[in-house]
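Figure 2 data, in text form.
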Amino acid sequence: MAQLTDDCFAFSGPLLPVIEMERMIAERVQPVTGTERVSLAAARGRVLAGNVIAPIDLPPFDNSAVDGYAVRHRDLASKDETRLVIGERLTAGHAAAKPIGAGEAVRIFTGAPMPDGADTVFMQEDVRAETGAVFVPAGLRSGANRRLAGEDVRKGAVVLPAGRRLAAQDAALAAAVGLTALDVRRRVRVALFSTGDEIVEPGSVRPAAALYDANRVLLGGMLERLGAAVTDLGILKDDPAALESAIAGAAREHDLVLTSGGVSTGEADHVKSVVEKIGRLVFWRVAIKPGRPVAMGVIREASGANGAAFVGLPGNPVAAFVTFARVVRPLFLRLAGASPEQLTALPVRLAFGYKKKTGRREYVRVALRTTAEGIIEAVKHPQEGAGVITSLTETDGLAELSEDTTTLKPGATVGFLSYATLMG
């Protein structure tokens, strides 16, 4: 199970600032234990368990960066063109049979090993060739168009650091130094379910007062993109005994229990009280909009030891999306043993005015457009409700408004977080 201290999220204020929440997660939550070795093909999205050391130089030998002619720079005239006799012809994958001779040029193609003694390559379009010889111009610096052995990676260097969430380019780098498999942390096990008497499964008969459950599809997809091993536990009704049994059972087999709905203060919102009974609910309101009622805590095992982490998200889909991106994501990455990934908001110009309360961070759904002057502008979706799913499908990301911001006029610059960034 995940290693969380009992006071890992301890906070005594009425609303927890986002930056304080992130700091506590980084300091107090310990990664899951356990590693496994996976092929490069299966490594994408996994977290490296240790540093990867390069067993060879990359590239492993000096080679040509262009199609052209390899020469010895000391053979070249300083002011006039130089006539050189053409020796060997080298293509990629074939080494020279002998060192380059004085006054000689070797016909060489991109990626072919440099002949011993050659240090410079002329591009083929910069020379004049005749039968058996080539004329090269003056002025090319020594070492031009030559890739040196180890200029990308030196043998023995850390080629990929522990804690990296592996992307396709990381697997490619591992392959380039001859590796076929990598040691990664085991996947974080997440139990996922929705709560509410008003929620039913898509495809089932929908009572007049019911809604189809979209949150599990949304959250499950976001978890899988982060590399989680997800167990879908379906929909739980607003029954305290059933909720207690399901959450306690899920905590025994998972590192994180993630729910949506039931964490507000209504009479039918039982998740908060259930978690307080079987664990510790250490805060349940974050200074964020949409999504203020988000609960975090620890579920205790029967022995009294700390078990799985718990996060209860709001039931409205937009609020669930925002709080997953800004609350669950950093917690999950920490559990996974990944190095911190700071979300970098890109500056965009507002095409609208906006007013907000101080003291909370707000996320406004916006679409991007480019003006006639080539400036990127953010356009607010016309509907702001936290249950409007089309406000996610018809926009490109979120405008992030800081806690101390109260009034923004059209033309102001704000930070923009794309959905690809938030879900990656």
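Caption note: The chain has four domains: 3-32+188-336, 35-55+160-185, 63-147, 346-423.
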